[in-house]
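Open question from group meeting: does this chain pack into something compact, or does most of it stay loose? Before anyone orders reagents, we agreed to write out a predicted structure and look at it together. Recording both the input and the output here so the notebook holds the full record.
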Amino acid sequence: MLEWFGLPQGSAHSAEIDYVVDLTHWLMLVLCVGWGLFFVYTLIRFRQGANPVANHHGIKAVWSKYLEGLIVLAEVVLLVVFSIPAYNARVAAFPAEPQSTVVRVVAEQFAWNVHYPGPDGVFGRTDIRLVNTDNPLGLDRSEAAAKDDLFTINEFNMPVDKPVIVHLTSKDVIHSFGLPQMRVKQDAVPGLVHSVWFTPTMTGDWEIACSQLCGLGHYRMRGFYTVQSQADFNAWVQEQRELMAP
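Structure tokens returned:
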């Protein structure tokens, strides 16, 4: 159903998420139509002309209780059989970091800071005292592990067909990191690190959405992410290293 709105299934888990969303929408459609028809029925059945004296006893039919039980059962099945297993698959089984593209994303008003570790796979130390316009993450370049790190602002690149792990936090207020085509959305909370992962299965360029009202400049908190071949990603990383070289 989400594909109807121009959102391609861009990650390995997209189909599973879309299936749960579709089931939820179909259930809501049935409830909406059902309650709408029942409302029209009550308007006609209990109109003033047919019932000059008000009746406050309500419906006494047994079928209404069975119908309510059926709705509760449908919601329990949707939650226990579909939603919880899909959630657990994304939370309890993170891929190994050495076989993944691992980044830190630090949100702030009004930008996304993306931090890539160097070839050593280790994120360098950051220090709030080093934060400035040229170093928004406060990366301590004097530390050995930080010398080969790189960071970008509002630009997130990743290779296709390889797991991506994002360690997400915020400098200031709550933001919400959204990659709609990847079916990924996770709050960025100051003082906490939340991790999310996905495996992109198609190449393309899309927008990073902030799905949480984060201030007067919320409208301009737009980033961009690119899924590309491994060779193109390697070339992009090398280009970024040359740009950041002293």
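Observations to bring back to the group:
The chain has a mean pLDDT of 88.
The chain has two domains: 2-91, 97-244.
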